[in-house]
């Protein structure tokens, strides 16, 4: 058996556990171990991405290499993730971490700080029926949701029922759907090649006999848990698991009132109905059990110490088993099988059903609610009444008179004939007639047959039931792939089943095919999107990353199929996640033509800003400087600033002809020129400028040298 998903029953973390402190999948930081089982261990951990406490269930080393175990572990995640119910522990994620060279297969689940129902049993049991019913109701509600989704828990027990602290709402949650399997034709056998799955104290008889399980196996285990809450003990105990399993198969679960006399008869009947060894006598699934539980809960709220009609309606209709030789062990004559009815037996024996002195079969382990006192000595020969066996009546022999061998030769006084024999015979006949009449009334006459209303709408079905003298009640609706929405797909009791005259028939109406719309996921994180898919019974497929200029990194851009698409439950939906804005690395563009660089950046949706200045070293039109510098990161829409060369700055040479050499030199140097003087060919020594090179009006670069020719 696997451990509960994260039981709070003081399970210490193992010293030196190599997983403690490890970061699984780069996200889940393991803190401490809180539970350990044969297949996996459960750890308290921190989701570093969402900064929340979670429970991580890790398969034991080596099992991850077994393909069958690994596939079953993954199926657990997908099956449990389909359940979206306030009383079911949520499953968030599943993964396989190989960072240390080994496969570490794990599940990530909701963390429920608190304790288990087992802790409550230890502290409070036996408890009042009102308290017991209040604790078991959310468990049945969670199982009903699972059964409607086609899942069986297979390991219902107090350890797998978590109760949050009052600071966290005190909600009751069912954990460890790790043994659950989808209900289908090929998943009715045990999940481990014939090895029984489940805890033996809560194991349904059919699991022991032939390994087959359906929703009724969960109903049986829930009934055993209710018995334990009411009495503080398990119904069957033994020195070994085999002995306990044997008792589940061959002995009924005793009535709780045998241990706790204050338990009402209708609560006894509910336990008997849920734990019937004949699974056909149990509620078909947890939804039907939840309906019966609500009836019992209503009677408890009204303070009823006894409700014979409700008790009789809840008790299983059990047919006696025939003996191999066709009669009873005492050789008595076997009568027609009679259904077990506590109210009828109470009337016939003139005692309260729970205070009867009748004993079944002389076997102290095979008990019913009638087994409490010894048979009174003055009733040495009453009929032995046993729910699972035929009822026998041994008639008292009539007194006889021995005839003389020959006539007496002397006269004698006539003997008085004894009246005791005829009186006992009459009483036996009357008792047999009373038993037969009562059994006929309580076993057949007061019942009617449930009419067939499958395929009718609710109004028509109610009309049919009312015409038959029955009441109709709408139960939990269910999805159907082949029955139109609004029509009846099942009844409880089923068509042709027995129901008390004037009783109630629960109608299950079709919701039509189970379909779900793909929710709008754009703008959500991957975890939020997965939670939204799980809430609509859709499965997460895979995610792909794409650049996006409008959707922030880590958020959903779109889904495939898109939002609004109608899908069957369990269909996969893929996500496209944003990688954020696409970055561009800045290169060194200095010295390159501004026209070429501008064209390249415009294609990448970058803005270009240009400033110009003169440069004596950079050619006109080339880039002198850029901002940001090379190696920086840019995104679409960002701006790159460039300083572009205008080439060297040009200055017009002024007229200096006929000017004195000093004045001309001062003028040219003031304009930034260098001045050099030479004598003209016709130099006279006057000291005036005859001409210049470059000549007046020419544009030359600032700082150029001007030659003055003197005359």
TrEMBL record:
UniProt xrefs under Gene3D superfamilies: 3.30.10.20, Phosphorylase Kinase, domain 1, Transferase(Phosphotransferase) domain 1
SMART domains: PASTA (SM00740), S_TKc (SM00220)
The entry's keywords: ATP-binding, Kinase, Membrane, Nucleotide-binding, Serine/threonine-protein kinase, Transferase, Transmembrane, Transmembrane helix
GO BP annotation list: negative regulation of fatty acid biosynthetic process
Basic and acidic residues bias: start-end ranges: 368-377
Region (Disordered): 318-338, 354-377, 393-417
Ranges for domain PASTA: 444-511, 512-579, 580-646, 647-711
Membrane-spanning intervals of the chain: 423-444
Keyword Transmembrane on entry: yes
Coiled coil: none
Domain Protein kinase: start-end pairs: 28-294
Catalytic activity: L-threonyl-[protein] + ATP = O-phospho-L-threonyl-[protein] + ADP + H(+); L-seryl-[protein] + ATP = O-phospho-L-seryl-[protein] + ADP + H(+)
E.C. designation(s): 2.7.11.1
Biased composition (Low complexity): 393-413
Signal peptide: none
Molecular function GO terms recorded: ATP binding; protein serine/threonine kinase activity
PANTHER family the UniProt entry points to: MITOGEN-ACTIVATED PROTEIN KINASE KINASE KINASE 20-RELATED, SERINE_THREONINE-PROTEIN KINASE YBDM-RELATED
Protein name per Swiss-Prot or TrEMBL: non-specific serine/threonine protein kinase
